[in-house]
Each structure stands twice: as structure tokens, then as C-alpha cells.
Amino acid sequence: MIDLYTAATPNGHKVSIALEELGLPYKLKVLNLGEGEQRHPDYLAINPNGRIPAIVDHEAGGFAVFESGACLIYLAEKTGHLMPLDAKGRSRVLQWLMFQMGGIGPMMGQANVFFRYFPEKIPAAIDRYQGECKRLFRVLDGHLANHEYLAGDYSIADIANWAWVRTHRWSGVDIADLPHLKRWRDAIRARPAVQRGIERPASSMDLERDGEKGAERFAVDARRMVETGQSLQAPKGAA
Question: The CATH number of the domain where 16 resides is what?
Fold first, then answer.
């Protein structure tokens, strides 16, 4: 059994999707980020960085793993699935995983902060981060023009990037002119394990249902988490 400490964020959903895809039994332990549960001493013993997600593998003697990318690699290596075993294939997956960890995630995260969460709008900052998100999306689109998935077969690289790309509307970035990215986004969204994973846990905010007024209410409530540096919830209705 694996314990998954998580919340409804792109990084959290990476790991729940992977667990669902791999068919591993796990127990969901949702942390209330607004109440600061990620900073409780018991959780800091699992993840000293005080962020989500983290996993504890009881089959491995209670082995703890923090950082979403590290969790994905651990689960793939534990099962022998979602990442090739040969050196070149493994490297291809890790390259695109690092692309998400070092680019897509941080840039979309900053776009979210300046576009959605800061009460004061700073156009230069919004343009900077939305522009970089769009550049990274074009990189994905160009690669996907000639590849069904990012690194050969469907892998943890696809899961990691998709969990963020699906929320592009929340970052204020349009992908209507990126047909290959849209094709890939929709194909992954149709996978039953992915559909289950993004509901564990489900976000309280749905862009399609609640609209921009609902988004603003959600953003106001979330601003205090920006002050703590914690990643925020991912809205529904983005993919």
C-alpha cells in the first residue's frame, strides 16, 4: 500500500494519475493547504520542503519520496512501466520530464500568480510569463507534430506535462493555434486512469461551471497560499 499526500494541484495530479495508470493500491491523504497542514511536523518528517505531493511506500518499509518528478520516477522504476528500461529510452523520458519540471511547471506557476492571484496586475510580468508558457507550448507542439507521445510510448513524461498543460486557461494562455498539442491533450484526457486521477482529489473550482466570476472568488481565497509559497489548486474545465 502507498500513502499519497496530495492536494488538487497539477503536481499532485501527476502522481494520482500515475498510480491509477499503474493500478497500484494507494490511500489518499489530502492536505488542506490553506490551513497549513503541509507544514505540520508529522508531514515535514516525510517531506522536509513542506510541499505536496509525497508518497510513503509501506511495501518498501515505509520509504518516503517527495518531489512530484521523483515520485513518478520511483513508481515507474518500482513497477517497470511508464518508462523504458534501456538507457536511451529512459533518457528520452527523463529529458521531457525535466522539461516540465524546469520549464512548464515554473513558468505556468508564475503566470498563475501574476495573472490570477496577485491583487495588483503587473502587465509586464503577466506578458513575460504567459509569453514563456506559449513558447514552451510551441516546443511541445512542434515535437508532437511527428510523435504520438513525448518519448516513444505513453510515459511519465506525458503525465507530468499533461497535468500542467491541461490548465492552460487558468494561466491565460490559448492553445487554439497548436493543433498537435491539442490532439495530445485530448487523447490523454480520454484515458480512464487519467479521468480518475484528476478527481483524486477533485478541485473545488471548475472554469466551465463557475466562469470568470467564480475564478476570481477562487483566486481571492487562494492569495494567502501565494504568500506562503505553496502551489495552488488546479481548476477543472481546462482540458
Answer: 3.40.30.10
